[in-house]
Amino acid sequence: MKKIKIALIAAICLLAGACDSSKKIVYLQNLDPSTQEATRADRGITIQPKDILSIVVTCKDPELAAMFNLPVVSYQTNSEIIERGRGTRQVLGYAVDENGEINFPVLGKLKVAGLSRWELQEKIKKELTSRNLLKDMIVTVEFKNFKISILGEVTAPGSYNIEGDKVTILEALSMAKDLTIYGQRDQVYVIREENGNRTIYKMDLRSTDLFDSPAYFLKQNDIIYVQPNKVKAGQSTVNENNLKSVGLWISIASLLASVGTLVVSIIRD
């Protein structure tokens, strides 16, 4: 009986070690599927200096609306117009200057910084309506340079262009094909520069508290950095990395084999 107890204790120790490892990599560990919580309202990103905006005005009379739209050209040097696209087709956009303004056809300078794209759409519609320039128009505003960068222990680091005006940190990490096994889930940082200030947010992907973080919804030019664990941090070269990885698994296999042999021998004796 005593030998069986020793064997059970050894097995429990192994299981405890495995459970401890899983706690380091499992996301949202305190998530309760049976509860419902109101999601935090977020109106999406707001317009900032250096943003590039696509603004299209349409109405029943295309010729009348054309005067409020930028032309599609192969090349133009106007500093207010940024060319993007491939081949002969160029999609033009308005560059927001350092004062947070754009130069819109007919309407002139418009203050746009701090507005969401929906708010800018309504602002342009009101301006066109109040000046009796257009009726029953549709205004569409889109961001042309909403991008984020993801560095550190992810499978596919790099810069990613975002469609739309909302993206969460979990969605961004999925674009980078998730963290590697070496990435510390509780050491994820979002670096944000806004209004001349740099703010760094620390995120713990293991906790649902990340839903309440100001950095849960990402903004233009945010940088996500995933810190490596001690094992990866100690690996300085590719060759050393491979050797240590192989050595680690060999050590684990040897340890498990030794414990298994010990347990079997104790039971037999």
Alpha-beta classification? alpha+beta
What summary fits the major beta sheet? 5 strands, mixed
Shape descriptor: elongated
The CATH topology name of the largest domain reads wza like fold
Which regions are unreliable across 5 or more consecutive residues at pLDDT < 50? 13-19, 84-88
**Helix-strand pattern, N to C?**
HEHEEEEHEEEHEEEHH
Q: Report Rg.
A: 28 Å
Strand proportion, as a percent range, falls in 15-25%
Explain what you see.
It is a single chain. The protein folds into three domains: 52 residues; 92 residues, wza like fold; 86 residues, Roll (Outer membrane lipoprotein wza fold like). It contains six helices and eleven strands. It has a five-stranded mixed sheet. The chain has a four-stranded antiparallel sheet with strand order 2-3-1-6. The chain has a two-stranded antiparallel ribbon with strand order 4-5. A hairpin with a 5-residue loop joins strand 7 and strand 8. It starts with a helix and ends with a helix. About 4% of the residues have low confidence.
